[in-house]
Each structure stands twice: as C-alpha cells, then as structure tokens.
Amino acid sequence: MPNLYFPKDTNDAKRLSALVQRGKLNRIRHGIYTDAAMEEIPTLLESRWYEVVAYLCHNPLVAYRTAHELRPINGHVFIVADVKKRTKIAVTSALTINVFPGDSYLLSEQFVPALSRSALPRQLLENLTETRSTAQEAKSLGPEWVEAQLCKELERRGEDALNTLRDQARSAAPTLGLEKEFSVLDKKVGGVLSTQTIEGNLTSSLAIATAKNEPFDSNRQALFESLADYLKQCEFKPLFFDYNSASWRHLSFFESYFSNYIEGTEFEIDEAEEIVFSRQVIGNRHEDSHDVLAVFDLVSDYQEMTETPDHADDFLELIQRRHHTMMAQREDKRPGQFKQKINKAGESVFVSPENLAGTLTKGFDIYKQLPEGLARSIFMQFLIAECHPFDDGNGRLSRIMMNAELHSVEQHKLIVPTVHRDSYLNGLRQATRQGKFRTLVKVFFQLQCYSASINWLDYGEARDQLELHKAHSLPDEGIAEFNKQIKNYKMSLPIV
Hints:
Blueprint: E1 4-5, H1 10-21, E2 26-29, E3 32-34, H2 41-56, E4 61-62, H3 64-69, E5 76-81, E6 87-92, E7 95-101, E8 108-112, E9 115-118, H4 120-126, H5 143-157, H6 159-176, H7 179-192, H8 205-211, H9 218-232, H10 245-262, H11 269-277, H12 286-299, H13 312-326, E10 344-345, E11 348-349, H14 353-367, H15 374-387, H16 394-407, H17 421-434, H18 438-453, H19 459-468, H20 475-486
Parallel strand pairs: 4-9, 5-7
Antiparallel strand pairs: 1-3, 2-3, 4-5, 6-7, 8-9, 10-11
C-alpha cells in the first residue's frame, strides 16, 4: 500500500529529497513525499487527506461538511485553524485545504490520533452558515442536512438528547461567532419537537413528516406488508457471485445499459460501449450519454454497492445521495431532492409528497423484517418503484438499490434485459393494482438465475451470449427465444 512521508527535520528532508533524485519517491509538494506512482497520488490523497492536513496546518480542526463526510468532496476539505484570515492550500489539483480562522477546541472530538473534528452540536451550527462558493466548493451541507440530523437524533436518542444538543450549541455559538446560525437551529429543533411552528422553520420532507408524526400512505403500507408476507413464504437459494474485477465491470456495463434502455434512454450497444469504456458523449445526446455513464459509475463502484441502510434516516439519505449522483447533469430533475408534486405513470398514481417520508420509513421498517438476499432485494425495488420519491430516475434507482441488496451479501446481481421488459413491468402492475406478487417474484428469481449463467469474465463471450438469447431485442421480437433460456429456472412459489 502506498505511503506518505513527511520530513521530521532538515536531515530527514535531505534524505527524502535524495530518494526523489534516485527515483525511489515522488514529491507531491514541498515537505510531502510518497512512494506511490504519479497516477496513484489523487487516490492516495483522497484516502489519506487527514495526514496532509495534520502536517500542513497548525492546530487544525476538521469542520463544516468535512466533519461529517470525513473525505474530500470534489477535492476540497474544510478546516478551522489558528490563522488570521481564510486561506486555501492547494496541495495538488486533487486536494485543496480550505482553512477558516476560529476556535479549534470548542465542541470538538478526536476521530484519528492526530486530528479532531467538530462535534455534532458544532456541525449543526457550521452547516447552517451561508456560503458564496460554487456548489463544488460549498463548505456547508445546508438546512436539509441539519434537519435530517435532528430527526436522526430524535429517533435514536429521544427528545432529551435533542434538547441537550441545542443547549450545547447555544452555549458555544457566541464564542464561535455563530449566533445567527443558532437562532435558525433553535427554531428547527422546536419545529421537529413540535414546540414551535413547522411553517417557516422546517423545509425538508423528513423533518416535516417527523414533526407531524410521520403521515404516511396507509394503503401502500398494507401493500408492502402483503408483499413482505409473500416473500417470507418463499425459499430463495443464494446465488453467490465469484468476484473478478473484469467480470464485475462487464456485468455492471450491461446492468447500466439495460436499466437505462427500459427507461427510454435508447442507444445501440456499440454506442453504449463508447460512452462507458471511452467516456465519450454520443453526438448531441449529452444528457442521455450522462445517464448511461452515471448509472454505470454507481453500479460499478464495488464499495458503493456494498452499502445498505441500517436505519430509516440512513435509508432516506442514501437514496437521495445516489439519486443526486445519478442525475447530476439533469438540473431540471432536481437531483437528490424529493418530489414536490404527485407523479404518475399511466393509471398509477404514486405516493404524495406529504406522505413520502412517512411511507418510505414505514416501508423500511417492513424491509428490515425480511431475510437478506433476494427477498430484501425484491422488496427494496418495489418500495422505491411504488413510492417514486423523485421527479425522474425512480426506475433506475429502484434497480440500483435492488442490486446493492444482493451485492452486500455477496450474491449475484441481476440484469433486466430489454426483451424481458414487459414481463418485468407486468409483474409490477399486478403487484400494484391487484396485490398479486407471484409474477414479480418469478421474474426477479429467473433473471437472477439467468444473470448468473452468463460468463461475465470474457466481455465478447458475454455479449455474444446475450445477443444469441435476444436479450437486446424488443419483447415482441425476441421473447420466445429468451423464454427458452429461462424456462428451466423454477422454484415453488405461493399462489396467493
């Protein structure tokens, strides 16, 4: 594993410089050396940024959004230190340290041996500060993030803990010069606890739902409970994925390609290959190209796809983050923001905005009762699809969340080929409109079996297999041939 080296004294600096001259080390900047190759340095700095901060800054405190995220965002981290004015330290193009003057000790907590961060009460204040920076350099996570943390604390620790946070913030605010921010925080705490008005004090769907005791769609809750009861009657044999970096990348490509095709982002396979593997935009279809690439970048991120939520607030935060990543180039779709208007698909009307957070939370509670693997995977997909939390991208997000459930327990992800689109959508319709789940479960079971049957290690062979089975064809053109491939994947499913 590559290392970072910082000179301890003049003699040590000379020794490190000599190693650079001999080609044994690379110098990142004055006083910072590494044995990593030049192309590895950005990744190294992203993971070891805190060592650089501790070396370059006097009495630094990791603050603002970085205190929560604990990693650079767009190459930026934010700290408070003993300086007279705000400054930027450009370590490389991959890492910029934004330094703000202030108290480095008040409401702090250690998170690595050589470095502390803002404790939660201070984080709440700091992330309510206004910023004039660009979105890429914004130091504050903003009011909705603060409200999410308040809801999380209330859920996990109760009202007393929330009041304690407020008292700690009140005491520290004058010293930190954050009295204005405390005034806002005070009203938000009161709003969440319903001791102050909601209107004008709370903005996020989650916080408003919490203050209102989480209104939810009772019909959807009943539907989710019925699906969970059905899934509990099913016995799914785990299909484990034998990880190989090439297999993972090839599977992720087709996962992205087919998922976008279902939603109307239609490219020829050769065009999709150019977008993903060459990072090229096709003609004048910048946004469509981004859709394919963004989904691929998400589903091919091995670590990202291991993440599944432990708590309801984590769940809401996770789907917002993944949606923001997926729709980053579609500003008109409000990336990462829950819908503000009721959305529809044909005759299906999805959960209303005011009931969204409560319904997702209720659904999450049901999800946690299911066994890991395909049962949770199917439920998660249906939960997202049925709630339709965002203006656009809900289908793709539902399948990303679905496959993350499988990957997190080392089971084989599944693809939904174009040829099987109608069967997949029919399963969803039957579940939504009739409360019948057999078709939906059968579709996902067979698709996981089929996906596991493809040799993903060899890209050319995988593509040939899919083409032979008519996976790329429209349903009316290739379903007969595709059904020949999946007909032998059978399991005993409940009829009801």
